[in-house]
Amino acid sequence: MKKTAKKVDKKTVKKSSSTPTSNPKAVDARIKELNDWRGGTLSQMRSLIKQTVPEVTEDVKWGNVPVWYCDGIICTGESYKSVVKLTFANGAKLKDPTKIFNSSLEGNTRRAIDIKEGEKVNEAAFKALINAAVALNRSK
Fold first, then answer.
1. What does the domain layout of the chain look like in residue ranges?
2. What is the pLDDT of residue 134?
3. Residue 61 to residue 10: CA distance in whole angstroms
4. Beta strands in 26-127 (DSSP E)
5. Considering the entire predicted model, what is its pTM?
6. For 65, phi and psi rounded to 5 degrees?
7. In the chain, pLDDT over 90 holds for what percent of residues?
């Protein structure tokens, strides 16, 4: 017997990363766990993301990395000893006229913003990147 492939309606198939279950309590716990300047920085950036995209969903993946989604991954929030790194999944495709990206610049896909203790982030430029990332996700 010959098997025939079933026809799939593309409109009913959702990408797994486009509509994840939101788990803000896990992000709260991760921020609380970082009970130093990194937690404060991550909390501030989270607030800017939520102001920019109120419908954003968030979760913690890969052990302890907050991830923000809107029709796909917007960015992740990694914490290291000396920086909080916000990595944009498709950052290489985003316009960055203010040059806010300062890390992972050599790759073809991702771009990141490293924030050191005491550094201020250009909030308007950050929000513009968030909006651009969501627009890119929605264009796919």
1. 24-139
2. 98
3. 27
4. 57-61, 65-69, 73-79, 84-88, 111-115
5. 0.84
6. -110, 115
7. 81
Query: Could you confirm whether domain 24-139 is CATH 3.20.20.70?
Result: no
pLDDT tens digits for 73-132? 999 999 999 999 999 999 999 999 999 999 999 989 999 999 999 999 999 999 999 999
51, amino acid identity: Q
What torsion do the CA atoms of 75, 46, 49, 15 make, to the nearest 10 degrees?
40
Secondary structure (H, E, C), 10-55: CCCCCCCCCCCCCCHHHHHHHHHHCCCHHHHHHHHHHHHHHHHCCC
The arithmetic mean of pLDDT across residues 20-40, rounded, is 92
In the numeric block, which tokens belong to residue 126? 């950050």
Look at the chain and count its residues: 140
Cβ-count burial of 88 within 10 angstroms (0-12 exposed, 13-18 middle, 19+ buried)? buried
Sign of CA dihedral 94, 98, 100, 104: positive
